[in-house]
Amino acid sequence: MATAILKLQDASIFQGDNLIISNVNLEVNRGEFVYLIGKTGSGKSSFMKTLYGDLPLKKGVGKIVEFDLDTLKEKEIPYLRRKLGVVFQDFQLLSDRKVYDNLAFVLKATGWKEKAKIDERINECLEKVGMASKSYKFPHELSGGEQQRIAIARALLNHPELIIADEPTGNLDPQTSVEVMEVLQQLNKNGNTILMATHDYALLLKYPSKTLKCDESRIFEVVQRKS
């Protein structure tokens, strides 16, 4: 029996007073890898922001990792985000501190106290993305692909139930995109649920999976043609 980790019913996505996407009905089940595709400006980012509480869900019903988006209170947002791992296009690493300190900052901010446990968790997450040897580098000493891997490691720290990746390969060249994609595919094989927004159709061909499309103010599932 599939378990829905994200479910939206008759939901409308707003940015301020502007209606961006209307009448969204969808489910993402535990263990799935789901793409969200669509042209730039089609509403993918607004949709993603609604999922992690950056934009309120003003209309319809939404549930994500046991949180109700339609009644989500300001004070609940940090707790929601602890159950999500969010990966951005532009990495968002703190440039003035080393990789280890970037990750330790997140753990300490979410209540981790013991240095030994912090060290262990950081090493585990860096290992998962193939970056175990880079913990004492500054972000500027790393390539774009390496920085994005660190950002994925950061997203894994608190054992998220769902990873939301918003154009994670958007700033990377094709070869590096494939390397980052391999990391995400491996995480999914190991049980992580991933929702990834992208406009890189080459990745969809190389790694086919369930696909949602954002177009003309709607989101709908794209039925894959069997080759």
UniProtKB/TrEMBL annotation:
<dbReference type="GO" id="GO:0005524">
    <property type="term" value="F:ATP binding"/>
</dbReference>
<dbReference type="InterPro" id="IPR017871">
    <property type="entry name" value="ABC_transporter-like_CS"/>
</dbReference>
<comment type="function">
    <text>Part of the ABC transporter FtsEX involved in cellular division. Important for assembly or stability of the septal ring.</text>
</comment>
<dbReference type="InterPro" id="IPR027417">
    <property type="entry name" value="P-loop_NTPase"/>
</dbReference>
<feature type="domain" description="ABC transporter">
    <location>
        <begin position="6"/>
        <end position="225"/>
    </location>
</feature>
<dbReference type="GO" id="GO:0005886">
    <property type="term" value="C:plasma membrane"/>
</dbReference>
<dbReference type="InterPro" id="IPR003593">
    <property type="entry name" value="AAA+_ATPase"/>
</dbReference>
<dbReference type="InterPro" id="IPR003439">
    <property type="entry name" value="ABC_transporter-like_ATP-bd"/>
</dbReference>
<dbReference type="GO" id="GO:0016887">
    <property type="term" value="F:ATP hydrolysis activity"/>
</dbReference>
<comment type="similarity">
    <text>Belongs to the ABC transporter superfamily.</text>
</comment>
<protein>
    <recommendedName>
        <fullName>Cell division ATP-binding protein FtsE</fullName>
    </recommendedName>
</protein>
<keyword id="KW-0547">Nucleotide-binding</keyword>
<dbReference type="InterPro" id="IPR015854">
    <property type="entry name" value="ABC_transpr_LolD-like"/>
</dbReference>
<keyword id="KW-0067">ATP-binding</keyword>
<dbReference type="Pfam" id="PF00005">
    <property type="entry name" value="ABC_tran"/>
</dbReference>
<dbReference type="GO" id="GO:0022857">
    <property type="term" value="F:transmembrane transporter activity"/>
</dbReference>
